[in-house]
Design brief:
With about 150 residues, the chain is mainly α. It has a domain of about 100 residues. Helices cover about 65% and strands about 0% of the residues. It is built from 5 helices and no strands. The chain starts with 9 loop residues before the first helix and ends in a 7-residue tail after the last helix. The model has no long low-confidence stretch (mean pLDDT about 95).
Length: about 150
C-alpha cells in the first residue's frame, strides 16, 4: 500500500497511485479505492448526461408553455444542451443506452418538471406527467414544441 491515504488527500493519493502503476508496483496499489474511483467516473458521466437532459427538457417545456417569453436565451440554452448531449454520447457511446431506459427517463423527466415549474411559476400539476416528445425530437436541432 502507498504512503498517502485516500482519506487524507485524494489528489496526492491519486498521483501516488499513478506513480505506482507506472512503476509496476502493483502490490502497493490501493485497489479498493482505485475501483471506487473508476466506478465514480462512470457515474459522473451519467450524472452529466442526466443533468443536461433535464435542463434541455425544462427549456422545451418553458418554450411550449410560455410562448410569450420565448427568446434567444432559451433558444441558446436548448442548442447548447443538445450539442453537449450529442458530444457526451459521442465521447462515451455506452451512455446512449440510458436513452432507451424508461426508468432513466422518468427520473430525468421528474427533474425537468421541477426545474420548469420553479423557473416559470407554473404549477407542476399543469405540466405533462410524462414526456410528450420522442428522444429523436428532443435531440433534433429543428424541433421546438409549439
Amino acid at each position: 500500500m502507498g504512503t498517502i491515504t485516500y482519506e487524507t488527500d485524494v489528489i496526492a493519493w491519486a498521483q501516488e497511485q499513478v506513480r505506482l502503476l507506472r512503476a509496476g508496483q502493483f502490490d502497493a496499489l490501493d485497489i479498493e479505492h482505485i475501483a471506487d474511483e473508476i466506478e465514480d467516473v462512470g457515474k459522473s458521466e451519467q450524472r452529466e448526461l442526466e443533468s443536461r437532459m433535464a435542463v434541455l427538457l425544462a427549456h422545451l417545456l418553458k418554450w411550449q408553455h410560455q410562448p410569450g417569453r420565448r427568446g434567444s436565451s432559451w433558444q441558446r440554452t436548448i442548442k447548447e444542451q443538445r450539442k453537449a448531449i450529442a458530444r457526451r454520447i459521442t465521447k462515451t457511446p455506452s451512455l446512449k443506452s440510458d436513452l432507451y431506459d424508461a426508468e432513466w427517463w422518468e427520473g430525468v423527466w421528474g427533474d425537468a418538471l421541477i426545474k420548469a415549474a420553479d423557473e416559470t411559476g407554473i404549477d407542476i400539476g399543469q405540466l405533462p406527467s410524462r414526456c410528450p416528445w420522442l428522444d429523436e425530437q428532443i435531440l433534433s436541432a429543428e424541433f421546438y414544441p409549439d
